[in-house]
Amino acid sequence: MLIRGAGTKMDWGRTPAAIDVILSTRRMNRLLAHQHGDLTATAEAGATLAGMNRTLAEHRQWLPLDPPFADRATIGGILATNDSGPLRHRFGTPRDLVIGVELVTTDGALAKAGGRVVKNVAGYDLSKLVAGSFGSLAAIVSATFKLAPLPAASKTLVIEASDFDALGRIVGAMMASQLEPLAFEIHVPDVVGAELGPPSRAGQRRPLRSSLQLRFASVAAACDAQIAQACALAPLTDCATETLQGDEEREAWETHARRIWDAPGALVRASWLPATVSAAMSELRRMAGSACIQLAGRAAIGAGLIRIDADVRAQAAVVEQLRQSALFGNVVVVRGSPDLKALVDVWGPQGDRDQVFASVKRALDPDGVLNAGRGPL
Amino acid sequence: MNPVFLAELRHVLGAGAVLQDPLELITYECDALPHLRSVPAAVVLPSSAAEVQAIVRLCAREKVPFVARGHGTGLSGGALPVSGCVVIALSRLNRILSVDIPNQRVTVEPGVTNLEITRQVAPFGYYYAPDPSSQQVCSIGGNVAENSGGAHCLKYGFTTHHVLAVEAVLPNGEMAHIGGSLVDTPGPDLVGLIVGSEGTLAIVTSITVRVLRRPETVQTLLAAFDTIDAGGLAVSDIIGSGIIPAAVEMMDALAIQAAEAAVHPGFPKSDTILIVELDGPAAEVTALFDVVQGICRRSGATTIEVAQNDEQRARIWKGRKAAFAAMGRVSPNYYVQDGVVPRTQLPQVLNRIRQLEARSGLRIGNVFHAGDGNLHPLICYDERVAGEADKAVEVAAEILSYCIEAGGSLTGEHGIGADKSAYMPQMFTPDDLALMQRVRAAFDPQRLCNPGKIFPAPRLCGEVPGPYRQHPVEEAGLAERL
Ligand SMILES: Cc1cc2nc3c(=O)[nH]c(=O)nc-3n(C[C@H](O)[C@H](O)[C@H](O)COP(=O)(O)OP(=O)(O)OC[C@H]3O[C@@H](n4cnc5c(N)ncnc54)[C@H](O)[C@@H]3O)c2cc1C
Questions:
Q1: What digits encode the pLDDT tens for the residues B5-20?
Q2: Model pTM score
Q3: What range defines the domain where residue B154 resides?
Q4: B53 and B103, same structural domain?
Q5: Yes or no, beta carbons of B242 and A119 under 8 Å apart
Q6: How many domains does chain B have?
Q7: Does B290 touch chain A (CB under 8 A)?
Q8: Could you give the domains of chain A?
Q9: What value of ipTM does the predicted structure carry?
Q10: Which atom of ligand 1 is nearest to the CA of B474?
Q11: SS3 call for B277
Q12: Furthest CA-CA distance within chain A
């Protein structure tokens, strides 16, 4: 049995041998409660994040998550994959915001854990156990989250870095500063410059450089003050910077969210230590060989998506190199052709966690019914 | 206890690290809930993860229950020994394994205290955010087990939001590396499951946490109100206006009186005081602090005092943090629970507590984390008066039932432990508890790892929730309760 929300991630995971039943949550799509005074909300698994946030906005609140496909993805799917986007910098991943879940296990029991208060240490926090389980332990029926107030104002600083050393210095300076951006993104365009910047006045399009994108969201005065402070940081003094607001800002973030998904090739999730960014990006370029490689991710967290556009053997080679690299870890194929999935394991080695995964899986889904064969367990 | 087993323990650890002398064992018979006591069969003092692993392997082989213990400051009997058990005291695992400032990560052994992490990184302008008021003395291993929090968790979250990785010895003696310095280990979030599992799933032998840059600015105010409802209104309006303060704390008249008697913070004589702290970028804090002051005035604040410097801020916090221990100034004994209610239910639940106070004849002081609805009712009684201690326990139980009825929780910080396991069925159905038990059995099929905690079981004689007594660390002035 495979559980399906909006179906935005149906091609994630290993290729299953067979699927007998698809359990769709599409009709379980209600926002069950919005306790705006408590800054919490409960939604059924099939409710979309976008729909939920439209309702929450009536009270100037939101569930501050922006995973890929945020317009269609459902709460159940987002929690089950613990998927996130640039807002992770401030708010974390779904596991950091979820405060209660209702689950159905394969024996038909309906059980809950956590609750609807933000502070609660009674019993095991099973909402964490389903975060990242990809629907292989239990079906999520509903989930309760803590919310955040919508920011009053927002501005974005885009910084182009001349090279990876400069990139590393800027990331280091930002992290060591007292600036508190809402999001702090890194974008490394592909080597061969297939992605071109907007035409200059002379009509030329030059290859994009690596860039950092910082969104400050607060009262308006604080956005301005923080952008000024950021620009005054030493490593930024001779970088090209641009401050965006309003529609321009919104577009920049929409482009950033899409750019890696819209282009062809395999997509691989990977992590690195944020202070090693310049070494890690240099190594990534070396690994690329003739492949086009693009990266977009969270600069101060050290997590992102790498797009590998090449023939399938070259894609597999990059995945293997990333797994062997001392600078990268947790390399998971998110989007890949069946051919790629035949060459490399989607999930990669699980280390000594494997034993725990196996016994938890046996305890909750002894017949191996849920998400059979797709993984991660 | 099987002499061969003991000899093996001594062989692994050295004779000095296996305690059996009844006088030495007494130290380990309880945590900071001293009315729940049970002497362990032995106490072992490992000095490394490998030794913990060897101990657990032996226990698993011999089917001897084992109980991890940090620094024994728990308030729910989490580290309470069970009959015939080995207590694995982790105080010697107290090394700082790595401090990585550029990556904002620190790795330590579990016996390191919470505050020591901040001490390690403070020279670089960093701190470890979760701030239980026992932070000078409690261990980070205990924090992981209890998912501990403090006054500043409203904005910054609890232990679970700051732990990146743990190394753990599973109840079968196998080692598991869970999470990592690199984020996003694929698969279910086992770190999140282990944090807050009260030592029932594994023994944690190293912990990697995230440390935060100190905020640019901190502003603190103290507002006084004539009624608790007016103070409550101010809290709702602050949150309603889209501000998430670093901390929002409330104290009622009895708590104010006690704090005043103990540490003379100079709090205004009033029915309710509210402490609001904002932190973050200077421009943001300056703008929002004005809004907060306006809200306090409109809600009927009789006075508003703004801390002009760190010293004044420290004085306000001292008064707040002393409130628990200070109850001793106004009552011979008191008992405390830490139930949670949705913030909007605070006025309703506080009114019920007021009615209960009148009905029971026991005075109840209230000091609480108003921002996240975490109550700390302090039920005053005199143990010399026959029946009052029992009445205090009944009153505490009734307050917990108000919390559940209001959609809240039995505990926001202290954990269920042995103390509140009997109340779990009020909050969870048999199916909820059965699912949790299945997860537990996946880790610990032999039920050897801290048995008798969290899950309701028929209580043994004398094993009833009981009144509060001052913990030795409080007596020594090393920690205050929040
Ligand atoms: C005066 C005072 C004030 C307090 N204030 C607060 C507060 O503000 N906020 C708050 O949250 N708590 C507070 N507490 C409660 C307590 O300090 C915390 O629960 C703390 O985390 C316990 O740490 P410990 O080292 O003393 O653990 P212990 O009491 O020794 O053990 C607690 C639990 O952790 C388990 N455990 C310990 N170490 C490990 C390990 N390495 N691996 C696995 N399990 C382990 C034990 O088995 C037990 O279940 C306070 C306590 C006191 C006495």
A1: 999 999 999 999 999 9
A2: 0.95
A3: 96-213
A4: no
A5: no
A6: 5
A7: no
A8: 2-149 (3.30.465.10), 153-343 (3.40.462.10)
A9: 0.96
A10: 1
A11: strand
A12: 67
